[in-house]
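Repro:
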Amino acid sequence: MSKENLAHQQRSHHQLQQLLQQQHHQQKQTRYQQHQQQQLQKLLQQHNSHHHHHNHQAAANSHPQQHRKRKPTMSLLSLKFNRRRFYICLKVVLLFVVFGLYFVLLLRESITMVSSANRNKLGPGGKADALHKAPAGIGNLPARPGKHNIPKHYHNNAAGLHPAKGGSSTRSQSSRAQNSGMLTATSSNHSTLNPVYEYSEELNTAAEADFNDRRTVLWNICAEHRIIGKYPPNAWEFFISPGHGLAWCNIFKAASSTWMYYFNILGGYDVRFLQRTRSSPIDLARQRFPRPSTAELNDYLSNTISFLIVREPFERLVSAYRNKLEGCRNKYYKLLGEQIIKKFRKKAKDGKSPVKYPKGPTFREFLQFLVSHYKSGGRFDEHWSPVYSFCTPCSINFTLIAKVETFQRDTEYIIRQAGLETLLLNKMPQGKARAIANRSTSNTRNLVPRYFSQIDEQLLTEVLEIYQLDFELFGYNSTKYYSYVQETLDDG
């Protein structure tokens, strides 16, 4: 063999040995690493088992400080839970106490009113006085008293619509009834459940006396003219709230805006909504208090405080004319105004008016229209319809007859008798109340002489034929108007 081949073989053998040695060394290192890992795992296992045992002992034999740290946390949670439960129990107890007190007060009021009614009902010797038996809290008011005997076929109850066997009382009986019933009414009628509002014994007594006198006068006139039951009840115009015990015949142009506002409150409307809404108050009220039928009216009146608010007839007439027809400012009555002008305005032979007339019908033309309409048997608009045919007070035995002239006092009396002080008293915005009171009473009253100076005696007599009964029924004076008018007018 040559030397080169031998050298080559030696190098190859040497490389193979080195490769084997490296492989052997790597295997040895791998076994060593595996052994080290095994030892490490054993140590870890021993350490973990020892640590677990140590933790177990530490948990079993923990330091007192750890107990002191955990104990306050648990006690704090428990304290919070107990406090919350205590507050809940306290609230429940307070609710029971409040409702209990309220129930006791209601019970006391009911017992007081029942006992008062029983005392008033029985007169000397145990006989029932001839009184109007009103709902709870109304007090004793005479039923259809007066110097004239009321026909026996009319029952002396709140509705005044049912036939009955009983008779009627005389003026002397009503006077005794007023005197005996006045003291009990003034002492027990006002509610003690609402002591926030001031209560005047003197005003209450005066109102009670006026209400009695008004009913006395009304039923005397009804009997004198023999119109008791002549006009059928006009149920269409009533607002009835059975839940509040009120029934109101709405006479337009007689403080109707105020009580429409009150009935809307009773209907559940919010005061702020009523102040900002542009909806008609009567439309809102009719949504909550629909027009009753005659049968429904008859049923409701026997269990409610029925009332109406009247006004001096010619002041009401002037107010209606100014609001609806003067100057044709009201678009809904513009057509009627044009018809009145066309029919009653005098013209010269050349077709021109002899004088310069204002826009819209004059007050004289308006009264001429009323007389003509009355003679033809036509039905009057509600704003100038006579009260005797509109609310038929000679067919319905109203509990209370209020007047615009004593409106504030009468209204407060009605509200207190119904027990609605909290709902209604002081709920009318001051600006609105002043506007209603001033515009509807003092201003119109001062203007009445000027308007009636436009007519003559003959026309006044014809207009009084329509409204004289209202003057008499509600105690107003009509003779003064003859001092306002002219004896005759030149029609030109």
